[in-house]
TrEMBL record:
It comes from the Bacteria. It comes from Companilactobacillus crustorum. The lineage of its organism: Bacteria, Bacillati, Bacillota, Bacilli, Lactobacillales. Coiled coil: none annotated. Pfam families: Hydrolase_3. One of its GO terms (cellular component) is cytosol. This is HAD superfamily hydrolase.
């Protein structure tokens, strides 16, 4: 196995169990041991940085946050990479999505806050920085991402609509909890990791990544060691180098890290 210099992990369905908990003490111990081996640790998530900073307050040794499915990278509290959506594209998409899709909810994730016209049906756990506005077209912020939920579970037609109408301008990914994240084109976790590797002066071959859902697919495919969770989608398992022996409810990420790097001594 190529020398690992960075471990990146998704959270929901991966590092976190189904109740959104993780083994804080064990992760802190492993972070210290990994740092002694010269290995950095990154969280790679579709969530906004404000949310990630809050839920990981008790694990301050995490080196990097790849937020918004790769639209923003933060290291030690400093943004080192970001890719916002063009304002004209955001303003074009808002009425189109409302008019053409059977939406349950629509929210925007920006640099300053998250925005919606109503709290109804929103995943509020992920949006403590939510600002309710009368009109999304009047927001004065840089927008990283749309998140939409539909009135039904079949996301296929919505993805097709987005690709047919905005395929050259956006990247749409099925995210957790039956929603779709919509970012600017050339934004995903894999591309963010590539930028990070350039900044840190190592290769994607030196990266190990864990994931479970379709927004992790490119990341799992592109890194040196792509590891799918036991509970991952079939498409993710298919492209992974390894599959964890235990699922997200039984410390699958931490168990696998320990198996590979022999951290429990």
């Amino acid at each position: 196995m190529t020398q690992t210099k960075l471990i990146a992990t998704d959270i929901d369905g991966t590092l976190f169990d189904d109740d959104k908990n993780y083994n804080i003490e064990r992760l802190n111990n492993y972070l210290k041991a990994l740092h002694q081996q010269g290995i950095q640790f990154a969280v790679a998530s579709g969530n906004n940085y404000d949310h990630l900073k809050r839920i990981f307050q008790r694990t301050p040794q995490i080196d990097l946050f790849i937020a918004e499915n790769g639209a923003q990278i933060v290291k030690k509290g400093e943004t080192i990479y970001e890719r916002e959506m063009p304002k004209t594209l955001v303003n074009d998409m808002i009425p189109t999505l409302f008019n053409q899709l059977d939406l349950k909810s629509l929210s925007l994730s920006g640099k300053k806050a998250s925005y919606a016209e109503s709290k109804k049906d929103l995943p509020l756990y992920h949006m403590k920085n939510l600002v309710i506005v009368d009109n999304l077209l009047k927001i004065n912020d840089d927008i990283f991402k749309f998140n939409i939920q539909l009135q039904h579970d079949d996301l296929t037609e919505a993805i097709k609509f987005l690709n047919d109408n905005y395929g050259q301008e956006i990247y749409a990914a099925v995210s957790g909890f039956g929603s779709i994240d919509i970012m600017r084109n050339n934004v995903n976790k894999s591309i963010a990791l590539r930028h990070l590797c350039d900044l840190e002066d190592f290769s994607l071959k030196n990266v190990m990544a864990f994931g479970d859902n379709l927004n992790d697919l490119e990341m799992i495919q592109s890194v040196g060691t792509g590891i799918a969770m036991k509970n991952a989608k079939a498409q993710v398992i298919k492209v992974a180098n390894l599959v964890t022996n235990t699922d997200n409810n039984h410390d699958g990420v931490l168990n696998t890290i320990n198996e590979i790097f022999k951290l429990d001594k």
